[in-house]
Inverse folding.
């Protein structure tokens, strides 16, 4: 991936954020928990016409403003603060049976969505076509279809192919992955 192209996409978005992109990201929020600022996303959706210009000014300031030493301006420390929730995995009631979730302020989440939306087209152009995870318009099922197509072509032409099949599972929303089986054919 060309790092410079991703940086350029971010800088372009910071210099002149797209108004429609900002509104789309505000309107695309859900009714999830409020962050430490207690601002509800539903209120910001209702006030989108008033709130979008504020987000635009913040994006420009965070992306282009510099200190007297020539460094980029950093947001206030409270901007990145969040509420920590411990979500139970199986109801055991112990700390080791939970997963932590941090909920940031509403503005922080909206700015992050705007920046992600701004660089996504550049990332999709730069990432190899086999990268499927978490990218819109890319289907993870393509790997299965490609493997099947390759298998049947080899069968029809009497070719020998070696394929390794792996099955993966997670431990109830954990970040720990466990391989359950691998078979080489």
């Amino acid at each position: 991936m060309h790092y410079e192209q991703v940086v350029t996409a971010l800088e372009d978005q910071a210099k002149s954020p797209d108004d429609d992109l900002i509104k789309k990201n505000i309107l695309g929020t859900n009714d999830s928990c409020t962050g430490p600022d207690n601002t509800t996303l539903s209120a910001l959706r209702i006030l989108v016409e008033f709130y979008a210009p504020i987000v635009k000014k913040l994006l420009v300031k965070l992306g282009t403003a510099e200190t007297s030493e020539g460094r980029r301006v950093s947001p206030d420390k409270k901007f990145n603060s969040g509420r920590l929730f411990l979500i139970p995995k199986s109801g055991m009631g112990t700390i080791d049976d939970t997963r932590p979730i941090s909920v940031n302020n509403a503005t922080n989440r909206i700015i992050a969505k705007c920046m992600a939306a701004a660089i996504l087209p550049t990332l999709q152009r730069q990432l190899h076509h086999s990268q499927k995870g978490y990218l819109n318009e890319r289907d993870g099922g393509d790997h299965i279809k490609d493997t099947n197509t390759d298998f049947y072509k080899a069968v029809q032409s009497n070719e020998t192919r070696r394929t390794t099949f792996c099955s993966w599972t997670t431990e109830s929303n954990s970040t720990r992955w466990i391989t359950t089986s691998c078979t080489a054919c």
